[in-house]
């Protein structure tokens, strides 16, 4: 859940890793897509397969956020690294899509 600036500061002082809301929210979007594919009979899998696919997607989001953060100078252990890394990763993904489509 998103936190107030004051709550984030308390978490940072306690050296608690802060997960970016946009990346956490992506789990709901991914779950919705998996459910839709299942319901439309595009794909058929067990609850265990569903969980495995969701876990893998979330791991990829985490790995992209950490990589973007470290590529842009944030320490992996830094409490704000995931937040900044998720924003950077999302921006780079969007910029690449726009470039691929000839928009820029």
Automatic annotation (TrEMBL):
Domain Glutamate/phenylalanine/leucine/valine/L-tryptophan dehydrogenase C-terminal as annotated: residue spans: 1-102
GO biological process: glutamate biosynthetic process
GO molecular function: glutamate dehydrogenase (NADP+) activity
Gene3D superfamilies found in the cross-reference section: NAD(P)-binding Rossmann-like Domain (3.40.50.720)
CC terms in the record's Gene Ontology section: cytosol
Domain of life of the native organism: Eukaryota
Entry-linked InterPro entries: Glu/Leu/Phe/Val/Trp_DH_C, Glu_Leu_Phe_Val_DH, NAD(P)-bd_dom_sf
One family name in Pfam for this protein: ELFV_dehydrog
PANTHER family xrefs: NADP-SPECIFIC GLUTAMATE DEHYDROGENASE 1-RELATED
Descriptive protein name: Glutamate/phenylalanine/leucine/valine/L-tryptophan dehydrogenase C-terminal domain-containing protein
């Amino acid at each position: 859940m998103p936190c107030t600036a004051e709550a984030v500061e308390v978490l940072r002082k306690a050296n608690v890793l802060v997960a970016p809301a946009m990346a956490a929210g992506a789990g709901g979007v991914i779950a919705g897509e998996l459910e839709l594919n299942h319901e439309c009979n595009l794909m058929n899998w067990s609850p265990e397969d569903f969980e495995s696919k969701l876990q893998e997607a979330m791991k990829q989001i985490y790995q992209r956020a950490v990589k973007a953060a470290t590529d842009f100078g944030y320490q992996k252990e830094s409490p704000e690294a995931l937040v900044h890394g998720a924003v950077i990763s999302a921006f780079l993904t969007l910029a690449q899509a726009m470039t691929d489509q000839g928009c820029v």
